[in-house]
Design brief:
This protein has about 170 residues and is an alpha/beta fold. The protein is built from 6 helices and 8 strands; from the N terminus they run βαβαβαβαβββαβα. The strands form 3 sheets. A 4-stranded parallel sheet has the order 2-1-5-8, with helices on both faces. It has a two-stranded antiparallel ribbon with strand order 3-4. The longest helix is centred in the middle third of the chain and has 18 residues. It starts with a strand and ends in a 7-residue tail after the last helix. The structure holds iron/sulfur cluster.
């Protein structure tokens, strides 16, 4: 068995998002990895103890995950509830899961305050995005797990092809 990939559970179509839906990502590589048993689906927000459905949440004030992890910013729901601890707990569980399953790569959906790796929303709940990452993506990178977004499946394929220890895809 070649290396595994931790993937946002919603990208597999699992109904784990805040709105109770999934967001299936159709791509031949994902279908191939799924058949090979290489994908480890995980939802950090559920793992952190949040219910589904749940109110949408964003990192406040235009900050990013590094600010959350440094205690300079919170993750807040549109209701105003502070869900920072649940987001951090879920992100840590995602890292544990990745390590335990032998995942050196993660494929995470962009834009999420957990899974975003290229952009996130600014905390105003008005659809304004900015460059930054979510809490789980940041913790993954800190742990040495390479993070790719749902827009970077082809880059992940290339990365795997370059990985001498993991050439068979
Ligand atoms: Fe999907 Fe990640 Fe949000 Fe869970 S936390 S619903 S896996 S984007």
């Amino acid at each position: 068995m070649t290396g595994k990939i931790l993937i946002s559970a919603c990208l597999l179509g699992r109904p784990v998002r805040y709105d109770g839906k999934g967001k299936l990502l159709a791509h031949p590589a994902i279908e191939r990895w799924r058949k090979q048993g290489r994908l480890v689906g995980f939802c950090p927000e559920q793992a952190g103890g949040l219910p589904t459905p749940r109110p949408p949440a964003e990192i406040e004030g235009g900050f990013s995950a590094e600010d959350v992890l440094a205690g300079r910013a919170r993750v807040v729901e549109v209701t105003g509830a502070d869900v920072t601890e649940a987001f951090i707990a879920g992100g840590r569980k995602a890292v544990d899961m990745a390590r335990n399953a032998g995942c050196r790569y993660a494929l995470l959906i962009d834009g999420s305050p957990s899974c975003g790796s290229g952009f996130i929303y600014d905390g105003s709940f008005t659809g304004k995005r900015h460059a930054g990452e979510g809490v789980t993506a940041a913790l993954m990178r800190e742990a040495g797990i390479e993070v790719f977004s749902d827009n970077q499946v082809d880059e992940l394929v290339e990365r795997l092809n370059m990985d001498e220890a993991d050439p068979a895809i």
